[in-house]
TrEMBL record:
Main localization category: membrane
Transmembrane regions: 123-146, 158-180, 196-215, 221-241, 253-277, 289-306, 326-343
Sorted UniProt keywords: Membrane, Metal-binding, Transmembrane, Transmembrane helix, Zinc
Name recorded for this polypeptide: Minc metabolism membrane protein
Keyword DNA-binding: no
GO molecular function annotation: metal ion binding; signaling receptor activity
PANTHER family for this protein: ADIPOR-LIKE RECEPTOR IZH1, ADIPOR/PROGESTIN RECEPTOR-RELATED
UniProt-annotated stretches for the region Disordered: 43-64
Species: Maudiozyma exigua (Yeast)
Length: 355
């Protein structure tokens, strides 16, 4: 280590002390993560001052430092960069800024709903649709759809709502996960599992509702597919909830289970082609919308898996346009297509087949 190195380190230490004593947002941080923030600030300071000399670095006034601190925040709220995060929060290194750091406070997590951060779009893109699906289930279907078809049976009514409640539950869990995962690692793990359970519920409810209307006059087939879907859903849920599988080593296994579960929808579809023919399936389950739904889910999962577009331009899509946000919107689009398919199947059953 040269004398110049020692001078540099001293200079950095001075600048760290200066920043820590003058910056309230840093003072608000807790525990070991305080250290991370300080080091990061020091690095920023050194880079910023590379055109000047070291005395300039250490003599920066507190007001200058406050200005920089404010530039890192939106609406006066401190947002953090990827390096500022504790290890457990570091998930996507292509999203560089805009993070809400570990809060250890339920209230602070809820407060994060009211200022823009890199989870805001993820939260609202599923929270708003979840409320919409709840309203559809509680009021809109009863008011605008069911009364038009007096032949509606109790089970018809139940299976329309099976999908609506499944979509509501999935998106509610997702919205809650993205809002509350900032609390702590324990909370994050808990809500992550619920998020996965929500996805399983949505897949299961989607299949069951459509198979019910598609096979309305072939009850034995419906019962078989209903049972198969439930068994696969339970297996997937066990894998997700079990701590043993909640490690990176088993990530491919979990992905395989989810993929298998999602792809199992092909079985009733293929059976439908065999029994009713292409045109029959096209009518019975409104195949066009089911194909659109599949396309949205596949594109969403691909973008999510490859972290497109942020992997192509890290830092550019921190707040808006990241792969996870796209995935959320495509899931909503897919679920809307499915709703359309279910409603059309229901209408067909009560307009053509039972007339
Ligand atoms: Zn999500």
């Amino acid at each position: 280590m040269t004398g110049q190195d020692i001078t540099t380190i001293r200079t950095r230490r001075n600048s760290v002390t200066s920043i820590t004593s003058t910056n309230n947002s840093v003072a608000n941080t807790t525990g070991s993560s305080n250290y991370t923030v300080r080091i990061n600030r020091t690095r920023t300071n050194t880079i910023t001052s590379s055109n000047g000399n070291s005395s300039t670095k250490t003599s920066r006034s507190s007001s200058q430092i406050r200005v920089r601190s404010r530039s890192n925040s939106i609406f006066g709220r401190r947002l953090y960069s990827f390096q500022d995060l504790p290890f457990w929060q570091q998930d996507n290194d292509k999203i560089l800024t805009g993070y809400v750091r570990e809060t250890n406070s339920f209230t602070k997590c809820i407060q994060s709903l009211f200022y823009f951060n890199n989870e805001s779009v993820n939260i609202y893109s599923h929270l708003i649709p979840s409320i919409a699906y709840l309203c559809l289930s509680l009021f809109l279907i009863d008011t605008f759809l069911i009364p038009r078809f007096p032949t509606t049976t109790t089970s018809d009514y139940i299976f329309i709502n099976v999908f609506l409640i499944g979509a509501f539950f999935c998106m509610l869990c997702s919205g809650c996960f993205h809002c509350l995962k900032q609390h702590s690692e324990k909370y994050s793990n808990f809500w992550s599992k619920l998020d996965y359970l929500g996805i399983i519920t949505l897949i299961a409810c989607s299949m069951i509702s459509l198979v019910y209307f598609g096979y309305f006059d072939h009850l034995q087939y419906f019962k078989f597919f209903f049972g198969l879907t439930c068994v696969l859903a339970i297996i997937c849920s066990i894998v997700v909830m079990n701590e043993k599988f909640n490690v990176a080593k088993y990530r491919p296994l979990r992905a395989t289970f989810f993929a298998t579960f999602g792809m199992s929808g092909i079985i009733p579809l293929a059976t439908g082609f065999y029994i009713f023919g292409f045109h029959g399936v096209l009518q019975r389950i409104n195949l066009t919308f089911v194909l659109w739904e599949s396309l949205f889910y596949i594109v969403g999962a691909t973008l999510y898996g490859f972290r497109i577009p942020e992997s192509l331009s890290p830092g550019r899509f921190d707040l808006i346009g990241s792969s996870h946000q796209m995935f959320h919107f495509l899931v909503v689009a897919g679920s809307v297509c499915h709703l359309k398919a279910v409603i059309e199947s229901y209408r067909l059953v009560h307009s053509n087949f039972k007339k």
